[in-house]
């Protein structure tokens, strides 16, 4: 039975409406799960097409499909399909004007609300849309070969007729559904963000594991459909026996995590680790199928696209390294390898910069961004550097530990200098006391050799399907100097212009926003401007985006004067074709504001011809600086040349210098950062995750090794305040003493339970004084928390019980006899439920299983347990939704018909308590711990609880 597209639109509209609700806000994960539960009858049918639904809910995942349709072209197709007149077409084009505050999808919805389509005879289905879009993608040369070879859709035979089919769909859709179809074609549902993990688990609990091994929605969907029809596999472990890698189907990549310091990295690994050189190239997953003869090589890129033809110049190096078609070939059927594609110079005897790759590798047959590059020299050629093997002759190595896989890789590969190589690496034993200094020195050597960074890998399998695995197991950790401290800072840049993107503007929730993308540049005639007052001439180097905090700062405190590009006469701009894909700024700032940038390295972007920051990130928005204070274009080029071409040191002096620098960034010695009084600072990272990100249906999660164990890998993408969590962790760690080190809890391994607590009663934590109902202050997200009653260190009675889902009693590891926080049932708001740092803090207080689903508190086993909740007050909308969830529980005091009031605290109370406990531990190290109990009741602890109180719900 076909699945109606209107059902999908129901879900998308609920998610969008949920964002703007003032009360009764639910988590996106709950809405998605309820939707799947409601439609489970259709989803479990034998004729249900899983891949079609996944392609509809997660269109951005279909990287193999390229439609070559953007907003302007789609506007034309919609206008033709709906047969609009000139005035209606002008109305459809309002999305290009910032003052309208609408995207193309909303313009389509507005037109169809005014003049609705007649009720169609046949409703539009997910399968119908999927077939049409597949046919359009099959006609585009930028789609993957598998899509192009699959043939055209049944609707029309030419690309033009295929695209006309889109207009026919719009004539059969109501206004709301047309809006979501528009966003689906553009592969962007923003501001609605659907978590893929929630969708995968809701469709089937085995789907995330399937997509790890076979990272293709169509293939994984077919496997799941077959499993559902045959009803064979019942569990995750059985799945590992039935499923293995398949030649020609890309394997999903391991989870990659950014290491923020040496200490941070060592906290995520264990035992002997492989410390590998990170190369600045392009990822390759190489499939060798000897049954295909000369066409035995297939190469997948990081995005999952089949780039075999584009990388044909690499094929000979692969053949020679595996000795294919030779008697000594070590493989009989095939294999799957991982490696990095780089460009090697026989003349300079070294691997060249990343931007050299585009001269040797085309994109779907077209060389992009090479207009200002020199021709490929005869002494330059592609090279492959291998670092892993995932399958050999039908034998999967995904469950084999890394050291064994690398040994098999060494036996498999024939190293040919300049053409093929194994990644350089060193082994470090993390169980030794010298592990930190060993890693620090290896990292310093990498920096002095102008390497990109290091990749740290524990001796783990490639994938582990066990839901109880150790945190960070099977993860690769990237360590670059730009991730640490201020090593990546470049300097101040001028913001010379901006443009507006309607879809992006909706994610900021700022009314009347005029800019979303900012053009930054450097003065080309800085000396003339400073000495003679000449007209400023800027070279635009990059286009950057701001996070929500920075955008609010830009609008509220900077709000620069702007004019249209045609009216600009105050400054001159040099904008190369390679900047922002040829798009130019719509608005120009006659007096450019100033921002501070950091980057990973320098690169020559295509069609520019000069050095510019690579992956630039805005770290500060300055309110008190002139564009004349910014870095000049000449200074930028000199800085880049110096960074790229500095000769390696002849002795170890620079290594020692870097060792000292890295030592200074460690949490134990890092000073509290300061900022200028008028410089508004905010970290720029990825968009903060929705409260539902990576939330599993489990009620509680066990915390071990300082992190929350989750059923899906942690993403490398960190939210804008997740980095703040790590930075806070560093500052708190500075207060830890030898007392904490001596009482450090050993790592929990699989099968171990949390440390058991003493059976004696807990003397005190703090008894949170419950006010009378009339004086209750209903908790609300606010910056200056107040309390309706004094918050003092509450005392637990002997009858208090630990959460019934715990596996054993636990206690604080710093002041085990004084801190009774572990006897509280702690509820985490969705905003912080998945962050390892919060898990570290809770674990240090003996809490191994925080509650992440408020409904658990309805259980009678929790009736006599003291309860409190932790929130992120900097996210007021999500916090208010969390409060509403607690209110809906209608909790009663045990044995009474009175409402129970739950105390709410800012999660940062945990780190302050930890720091204070560490200080108390030093004071009481040689004395009876009971002395600390008195101090806890009358000293700083009561002040800490009161300071971070958010009231009661």
From TrEMBL:
Residues 384-504 form the ATP-dependent DNA ligase family profile domain. The lineage of its organism: Eukaryota, Fungi, Dikarya, Ascomycota, Pezizomycotina. One of its GO terms (molecular function) is DNA binding. PANTHER family: ATP DEPENDENT DNA LIGASE DOMAIN PROTEIN (AFU_ORTHOLOGUE AFUA_5G02430), DNA LIGASE 4. GO terms for biological process: DNA recombination; double-strand break repair via nonhomologous end joining; nucleotide-excision repair, DNA gap filling. Keywords: ATP-binding, Ligase, Nucleotide-binding, Nucleus. This is ATP-dependent DNA ligase family profile domain-containing protein. Belongs to the ATP-dependent DNA ligase family. InterPro entries: DNA_ligase_ATP-dep_cent, DNA_ligase_ATP-dep_N, DNA_ligase_N_sf, LIG4, NA-bd_OB-fold.
């Amino acid at each position: 039975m076909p699945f109606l597209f209107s059902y999908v639109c129901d879900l998308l509209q609920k998610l969008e409406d949920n964002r703007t609700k003032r009360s009764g806000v639910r988590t996106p994960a709950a809405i998605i799960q309820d939707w799947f539960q409601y439609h489970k009858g259709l989803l479990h049918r034998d004729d249900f097409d899983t891949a079609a639904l996944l392609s509809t809910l997660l269109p951005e995942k279909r990287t193999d499909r390229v439609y070559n349709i953007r907003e302007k072209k789609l506007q034309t197709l919609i206008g033709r399909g709906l047969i609009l007149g000139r005035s209606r077409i002008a109305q459809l084009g309002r999305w290009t004007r910032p003052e309208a505050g609408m995207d193309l999808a909303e313009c389509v919805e507005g037109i169809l609300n005014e003049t609705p389509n007649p009720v169609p005879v046949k409703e539009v289905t997910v399968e119908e849309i999927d077939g049409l879009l597949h046919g359009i993608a099959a006609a585009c040369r930028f789609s993957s070969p598998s899509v192009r070879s699959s043939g055209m859709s049944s609707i029309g035979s030419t690309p033009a007729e295929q695209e006309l089919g889109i207009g026919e769909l719009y004539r059969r859709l109501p206004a709301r559904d047309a809006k979501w179809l528009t966003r689906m074609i553009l592969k962007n549902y923003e501001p609605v963000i659907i978590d893929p993990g929630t969708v995968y688990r809701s469709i089937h609990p085995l789907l995330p594991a399937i997509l790890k091994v076979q990272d293709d929605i169509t293939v994984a969907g077919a496997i799941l459909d077959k499993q559902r029809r045959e009803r064979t596999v019942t569990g995750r472990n059985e799945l590992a026996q039935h499923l293995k890698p398949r030649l020609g189907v890309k394997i999903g990549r391991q989870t990659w995590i950014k290491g923020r310091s040496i200490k941070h990295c060592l906290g995520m690994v264990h035992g002997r680790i492989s410390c590998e050189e990170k190369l600045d190239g392009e990822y390759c997953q190489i499939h060798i199928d000897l049954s295909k003869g000369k066409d035995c090589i297939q190469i997948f890129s990081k995005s999952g696209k089949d780039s075999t033809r584009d990388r044909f110049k690499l094929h000979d190096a692969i053949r020679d390294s595996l000795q294919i078609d030779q008697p000594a070939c070590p493989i009989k059927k095939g294999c799957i390898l991982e490696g990095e594609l780089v460009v090697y110079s026989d003349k300079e005897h070294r691997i060249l910069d990343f931007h050299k790759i585009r001269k040797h590798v085309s994109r779907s047959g077209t060389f992009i961004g090479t207009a200002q590059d020199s021709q490929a020299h005869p002494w330059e050629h592609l090279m492959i550097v291998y670092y892993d093997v995932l399958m050999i002759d039908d034998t999967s190595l995904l469950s084999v530990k890394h050291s064994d896989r690398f040994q098999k890789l060494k036996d498999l590969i024939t190293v040919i200098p300049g053409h093929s190589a194994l990644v350089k690496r060193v082994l470090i034993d993390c169980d030794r006391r010298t592990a930190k200094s060993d890693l620090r020195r290896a990292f310093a050597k990498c920096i002095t050799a102008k390497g990109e960074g290091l990749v740290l890998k524990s001796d783990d399998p490639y994938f582990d399907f066990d839901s109880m695995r150790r945190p960070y197991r099977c993860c690769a950790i990237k360590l670059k100097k730009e991730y640490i401290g201020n090593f990546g800072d470049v300097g101040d840049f001028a913001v010379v212009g901006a443009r507006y993107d309607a879809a992006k503007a909706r994610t900021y929730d700022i009314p009347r926003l005029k800019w979303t993308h900012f053009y930054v540049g450097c003065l080309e005639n800085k000396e003339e401007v400073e000495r003679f007052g000449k007209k400023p001439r800027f070279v635009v180097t990059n286009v950057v985006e701001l996070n929500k905090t920075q955008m609010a700062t830009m609008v509220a405190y900077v709000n620069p004067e702007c004019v249209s590009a045609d009216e600009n006469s105050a400054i001159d701009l040099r904008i190369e074709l390679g900047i922002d894909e040829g798009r130019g700024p719509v608005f120009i700032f006659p007096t450019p504001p100033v921002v501070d940038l950091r980057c990973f390295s320098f690169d020559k972007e295509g069609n520019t011809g000069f050095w510019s920051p690579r992956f630039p990130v805005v770290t500060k928005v300055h309110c008190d600086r002139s564009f004349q204070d910014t870095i000049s274009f000449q200074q930028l080029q000199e800085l880049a040349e110096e960074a790229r071409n500095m000769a390696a040191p002849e002795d170890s002096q620079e290594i020692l210098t870097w060792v000292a620098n890295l030592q200074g960034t460690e949490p134990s010695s890092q000073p509290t950062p300061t900022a200028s009084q008028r410089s508004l600072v905010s970290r720029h990272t990825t968009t903060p995750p929705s409260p539902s990100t990576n939330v599993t249906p489990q009620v509680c999660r066990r915390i071990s090794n300082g992190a929350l164990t989750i059923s899906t890998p942690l993403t490398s993408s960190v939210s804008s305040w997740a980095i703040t969590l790590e930075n806070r962790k560093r500052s708190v760690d500075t207060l830890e003493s030898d007392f904490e080190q001596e009482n450090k809890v050993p790592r929990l391994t699989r099968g171990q339970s949390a440390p058991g607590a003493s059976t004696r009663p807990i003397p005190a934590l703090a008894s949170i004084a419950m006010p009378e109902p009339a004086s209750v202050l209903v908790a609300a997200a606010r910056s200056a928390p107040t309390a309706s009653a004094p918050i003092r260190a509450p005392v637990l009675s002997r009858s208090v019980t630990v959460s019934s889902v715990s596996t054993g009693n636990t206690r604080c590891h710093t002041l085990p006899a004084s801190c009774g926080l572990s006897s509280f049932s702690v509820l985490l708001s969705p905003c912080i439920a998945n962050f390892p740092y919060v898990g570290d803090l809770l674990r240090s207080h003996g809490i191994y299983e925080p509650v992440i689903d408020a409904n658990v508190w309805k259980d009678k086993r929790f009736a006599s347990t003291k309860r409190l909740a932790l929130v992120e007050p900097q996210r007021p909308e999500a916090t208010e939704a969390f409060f509403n969830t607690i209110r809906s529980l209608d909790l009663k005091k045990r044995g009474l018909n009175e409402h129970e009031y739950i105390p709410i605290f800012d999660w940062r109370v945990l780190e302050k308590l930890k720091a204070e406990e560490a200080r108390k531990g030093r004071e009481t190290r040689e004395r009876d711990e009971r002395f600390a109990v008195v101090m806890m009741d009358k000293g700083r602890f009561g002040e800490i609880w009161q300071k971070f109180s958010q009231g009661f719900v």
